[in-house]
Backbone:
């Protein structure tokens, strides 16, 4: 779906009325969840930077041969390389695109954007959040001041500057962002999709409310009794969710707060490979780590047991008293 303009309220209401929001079990495989996404759709990606990136879902979408997705995320890192390099996406909407603080601007991104093979829409970080917030609220835009003094505004004709009807001051309106599908990785959820997120939630709650369809990958599935014992810990409610996939280490090689930290040796080797040649290096990585493994567990084995366990040990150390 084209995301340059906000969807009408009647369209949003009709879309909502068609959804099955019943309390039902939604557990399925990565393969079946990938079938819920079709070529050309808009996909909102949960987490931020290297935190709770739904890497297992992205891994499966590449393997399933999806293409031409319009992907939006608050801050984009190496998963953005995979989106572009695999052909899974040809349009990225984000506020920052780098391989990470340690490795700098993505050469894969530059290769695809500067050659005209893909489109990159840059917004401010707050603007991405406000666009998801507007989408979650069912309103066509949100007002904000940031970007008014930035060159970023000049490259975003979708945003509109108006005179505030109450103060007369200039105010910026950013259009709602309502992805066709959201893919979000969480710490735990029940079979119905009641999800818990530990640590920073980023924009995931608004993203889940804004999207037409929500796919959750989770470190573990817990019982509904556990959910009911502490309902205040449920961040994404079941009626937003369409699919639940249990995938331990589902954000690897990125991190999941309190469970595992980034797998830096793998990420460093990845950066060296793709930065040496953004085309052949990316193809080599995709062949070895995306297409060759028979399962997600095989992918983790390629990263290496020692690195996975080390990341888990460091991640769990946050809970040490």
Residues:
């Amino acid at each position: 779906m084209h995301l340059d303009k906000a969807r009408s309220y009647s369209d949003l209401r009709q879309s909502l009325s068609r959804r099955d929001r019943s309390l039902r079990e939604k557990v399925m495989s990565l393969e079946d969840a990938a079938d819920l996404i079709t070529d050309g759709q808009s996909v909102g990606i949960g987490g931020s930077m290297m935190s709770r990136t739904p890497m297992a879902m992205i891994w499966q979408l590449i393997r399933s041969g999806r293409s031409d997705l319009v992907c939006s995320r608050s801050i984009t890192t190496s998963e953005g390389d995979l989106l572009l390099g695999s052909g899974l996406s040809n349009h990225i909407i984000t506020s920052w695109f780098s391989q990470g603080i340690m490795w700098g601007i993505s050469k894969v991104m530059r290769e695809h954007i500067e050659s005209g093979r893909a489109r990159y829409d840059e917004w401010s970080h707050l603007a991405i959040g406000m666009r998801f917030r507007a989408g979650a609220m069912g309103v066509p835009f949100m007002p904000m001041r940031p970007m008014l003094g930035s060159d970023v505004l000049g490259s975003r004709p979708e945003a509109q500057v108006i005179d505030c009807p109450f103060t007369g001051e200039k105010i910026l309106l950013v259009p709602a962002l309502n992805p066709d599908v959201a893919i979000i990785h969480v710490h735990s959820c029940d079979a119905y999709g009641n999800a818990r997120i530990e640590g920073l939630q980023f924009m995931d709650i608004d993203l889940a409310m804004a999207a037409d369809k929500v796919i959750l990958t989770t470190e573990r599935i817990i019982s509904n009794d556990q959910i009911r014992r502490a309902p205040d810990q449920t961040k994404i409610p079941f009626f937003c969710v369409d699919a639940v996939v249990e995938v331990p280490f589902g954000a690897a090689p990125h991190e999941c707060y309190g469970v595992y930290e980034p797998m830096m040796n793998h990420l460093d080797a990845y950066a060296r490979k793709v930065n040496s040649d953004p085309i052949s290096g990316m193809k080599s990585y995709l062949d070895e780590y995306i297409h060759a493994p028979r399962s997600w567990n095989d992918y983790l084995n390629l990263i290496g047991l020692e690195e996975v366990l080390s990341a888990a040990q460091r991640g769990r150390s946050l809970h040490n008293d």
